[in-house]
Write a structure and sequence with these properties.
The protein is of the alpha+beta class and about 150 residues long. The protein has a single domain, classed as Roll (Nuclear Transport Factor 2, Chain: A). It contains 5 helices and 6 strands. Strands 2-1-6-5-4-3 form a 6-stranded mixed sheet. It is globular and about 40 Å long.
Length: about 150
């Protein structure tokens, strides 16, 4: 199956699905390229020393740069993409499954994300994952070094 063109990614659900394939391929530069220059990523449940908001593509890129060094993602299970009445916005439910690179321990995290895209780029992404579960289990995840 050929890689989607930018015009194929004007649908926010397809853009999101493509972004997951890039994460599984550990193509963080490709994933970051899907962001609008002024896109904003939010983590409403971030623990105290972690960022709650990343403003701009460069901030998102810096946050995600070392992601594959921490988590080896194998698949996204239970993926459900819900369309909304808000133009360009989808709500996504999924589980990221893989292993933690440092320890080899299993990684299995549930996510809900509210994602808005315009012109084939992410402009807003609220990531409702549970970093407290990761901290409680001693997992070394991206963001834990952003103190």
């Amino acid at each position: 199956m050929p890689a989607p063109t930018h015009s194929d990614l004007s649908d926010p659900a397809e853009l999101f699905r493509h972004s997951l394939r890039l994460l599984l391929d550990k193509d963080i530069a490709g994933w970051t390229a899907l962001w609008a220059e002024d896109g904003v990523m939010e983590f409403p449940f971030a623990p105290p020393a972690w960022p709650k908001v990343l403003s701009g593509r460069e901030a998102v890129a810096a946050y995600m740069r070392d992601y594959p060094d921490h988590i080896d993602l194998h698949e996204f299970r239970d993926l459900r993409v819900h369309r909304t009445d808000a133009e360009g916005t989808v709500i996504v439910e999924m589980r990221g499954v893989g292993r933690l690179v440092a320890s080899g321990a299993p990684f299995d995290m549930s996510y809900i994300a509210v994602v808005t895209a315009r012109h084939g780029r992410f402009v807003a992404y609220r990531d409702y994952w549970n970093p407290l579960a990761a901290v409680d289990s001693g997992q070394d995840l991206p963001g834990s070094t952003l103190r």
